[in-house]
Fold these 2 entries.
Entry 1:
Amino acid sequence: MKTVFITGASSGIGEACARKFASEGHRLILNARRAERLEELKAQIIRDTALTEKDILLLPFDVREREVARQAIANLPAEWQAIDILVNNAGLALGLEKEHEGDFADWDTMIDTNISALLSITRFVVPGMVARGKGHIINIGSVAGDAAYANGAVYCATKAAVKVLSDGLRIDLVDTPIRVTTIKPGLVETNFSVTRFHGDQARADKVYQGIEPLTGGDIADCVYFAASAPEHVQVAEILVLANNQASGSVIYRK
Ligand code: NDP
């Protein structure tokens, strides 16, 4: 039984990762801002799997609040301190606008969440892994980080940063047994597009029209594949696209 810390576990890919690791018998530390969603998920996992109350710890906080994150992780109960797997998943896209016309607040939120917060959580968790001589960091990047697409430059840049930060961490940990993986999903139907379009459900639905998108469960399977590989195998990256998708911008819709 490993201890798995998942950020952004209240929805979508993070929630699916929580269910997957739970179904495989691993104990969970679950983070997101919406504590009530985490409570619901915890109750469902206890109902659906062999995990019990003592196997799931909820750690609701905003990952952008560096000091709050520092305290939450430093003050983990002793039996939860040894995190084996960190899934840095919390993240978002906001807006779809030309770079020279974009919204400053949207940019700040994306950069603070997708880059700065991922770095903070990494900084607070990985030293413990180094001290224990074991661990695995799985960062959720995106096909968006491979190349810019129209009206998405800032989001794409944050996901390019996730790839480069993962690569850098893998280099810095090369003399340890600790593994670093980047998962780069394509089109996944979650709450992602509703968030991107500031709650416009009809506009979000159009993103997934005419194509069968990936599900959060598909991505959780990739995360679990990397996490459950033999110790001598370091899955560096997985790029996973919907069948009728060839890149961040080339999508065939029926
Ligand atoms: P969702 O909107 O369904 O989930 C996003 C999760 O992130 C929620 O649990 C949300 O929880 C959490 N989150 C957002 N901001 C914060 C914050 N400041 N502090 C703590 N938690 C936060 O989207 P996805 O599941 O699709 O997104 C998960 C990751 O996957 C993101 O990094 C995204 O960039 C990436 N991705 C998604 C793709 C897609 O097509 N869906 C494709 C490629 C990558 P809460 O609101 O409760 O805080």
Entry 2:
Amino acid sequence: MDEMYPGPDRSKGIGVEAKDMIKIAFFDAKEYDIASFNTANSKGEYEIRFYEAKLSEDTVKLAAGFDVVCVFVNDDVSAGVIDSLAELGVKLVALRCAGYNNVDIEHAFGKMHIVRVPAYSPYAVAEHAMALLLTSIRRIHKAYIRTRDFNFSLNGLTGFDLHGKCVGVVGTGKIGRVFSDICKGFGMKVIAYDKFPNEGSGLEYVSLDEIWEQADIISFHCPLTDETRHMVDAASISRMKKGVVLVNTSRGALIDSEALLEGIKDRKIGAACLDVYEEESDVFFHDFSGHIVADDTLARLISMPNVIVTSHQAFLTAEALSNIADTTLSNISQFFADGRCDNELCYKCEKVGKCPQEHKALCF
Ligand code: NAD
């Protein structure tokens, strides 16, 4: 074990003298990020340069001269980008999100330390999932547009009760468990699937096949991995109940969008509530109103009366933004001051499910 996890080589140091201000290149910066990070950095302890651009092979040079790059869900932290960051002398990639499917953590091992914000508000995401579900099944999105046009007709707005319906929750970590509790509050029957069931949770765990076959509503809260990519495809859709409602606030590629579209056209899927989309990275977070959207699948999905799309918005609450900024800066501070970080990510931790070092030291 010691050989595999040798701990940090302190002789090299982490490379920032205590007197130096830590320099952070902040990619994909939005107004709300700048506001929350400026508040968290109100004492001016960090020098933060906000870039609108996403991190990619094309933009990585902007990180020259910085100690840290701070990135979000659609920044590209693939092998080539990691190599370039290491060459530029960047010491740390600080994710300001929980999911890390955009990072090649195996390639980063030994080259670049990666830290993340494992939890900032599971309530923000779980409540958004329920908001999407209620909006969809009670046709609130239609009613809102009608009444603004003084159309008070109720035709076509018939919904259904959530009370008594069976919801399948896929992934019962922090967000999935909050979502399950919300559903129980609505009087729903909750069944759950998790690769690593949380036996103390009091949840009724079933197989994935049973989720597909029994649930009236299925909500996804597991990470995107090779195993979960396209877990919703033509085969799984064929096993689902007619009229099933799918809610995805996790990662877009859990769902094969073409198969989803077919399922909707076949009237098999009753509704889809999507906060994430597998090809979202070039579209979400930008204003394309007045432009022709090139992604035909997304355009077709959005044109469906029973599909609601929000653009990766589930995390966006004041509480979550404040927690994200505080945890990101404290991750960076802990890394440089203590030579370790509780929220470090590495592929070995991922492989064994739990860090064997328990982050008493850096992973390499
Ligand atoms: P978490 O780590 O607390 O929980 C994830 C759960 O998924 C764990 O219980 C884990 O055992 C389970 N899991 C792992 N592999 C699985 C598999 N193959 N099949 C089924 N379950 C599996 O994470 P969380 O904080 O609850 O977040 C869940 C996901 O939500 C994240 O991975 C992220 O992609 C997404 N997320 C989205 C937003 C947003 O704004 N839309 C914000 C935060 C997180």
